[in-house]
């Protein structure tokens, strides 16, 4: 499995709108993408306009599928004007849980 950690700074006054818009992308990812095993939206506790996304995918093909999914495209077009600076991305390989562990957790992600 691969994971991506994304850091996004949002312009002042758009934090709530960004959070709301991001739910659709996060929920659509775990619900509609077989290769997406995690999509967390995190808000920095010290900087209210700083968000982090933690995502886990089966492989590069699954990440590419995510970037072409309708919910991602809708999210991106909605929020991109709210970005304050460049987006930071860190690509990683998961260590724990195991690949099978990620697969077994997926059904529980659909219980919102």
Walk me through the structure.
Helix 1 runs antiparallel to helix 3 (70-79). The protein has one domain: Alpha-Beta Plaits (2-Layer Sandwich). Strand 2 (36-43) and strand 3 form a beta hairpin. A 4-stranded antiparallel sheet has the order 2-3-1-4, sandwiched between helices. It is globular and about 40 Å long. The two termini are 23 Å apart. Helix content is 38%, strand content 27%. With 112 residues, the protein is of the alpha+beta class. The chain has helices spanning 15-32, 60-67, 70-79, 99-105; strands at 2-9, 36-43, 50-57, 88-93.
Brief rundown of the structure:
With 112 residues, the chain is an alpha+beta fold. Helix content is 38%, strand content 27%. The protein is globular and about 40 Å long.
CATH architecture: 2-Layer Sandwich
Largest sheet: 4 strands, antiparallel
Do you know the CATH topology? Alpha-Beta Plaits
Helix proportion: 25-40%
Distance between the termini: 23 Å
Number of strands: 4
Number of domains: 1
Structural class: alpha+beta
Main sheet: strand order = 2-3-1-4
Q: How many helices in DSSP terms?
A: 4
CATH class reads Alpha Beta
Radius of gyration from the CA trace?
14 Å
Low-confidence runs of at least 5 consecutive residues: none
Q: How much strand?
A: 25-35%
Shape: globular
**Average pLDDT figure:** 94
Could you give the order of the helices and strands? EHEEHHEH
């Amino acid at each position: 499995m691969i994971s991506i950690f994304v850091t996004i700074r949002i312009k002042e006054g758009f934090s709530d709108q960004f959070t709301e818009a991001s739910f659709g992308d996060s929920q659509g990812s775990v619900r509609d993408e077989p290769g997406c095993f995690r999509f967390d939206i995190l808000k920095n506790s010290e900087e209210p306009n700083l968000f982090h996304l933690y995502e886990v995918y089966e492989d590069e093909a699954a990440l590419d599928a995510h970037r072409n999914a309708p919910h991602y495209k809708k999210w991106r077009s909605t929020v991109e004007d709210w970005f304050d600076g460049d987006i930071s991305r860190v690509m990683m390989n998961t260590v724990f849980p195991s690949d099978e562990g990620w697969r077994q957790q997926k059904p529980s992600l659909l219980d919102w």
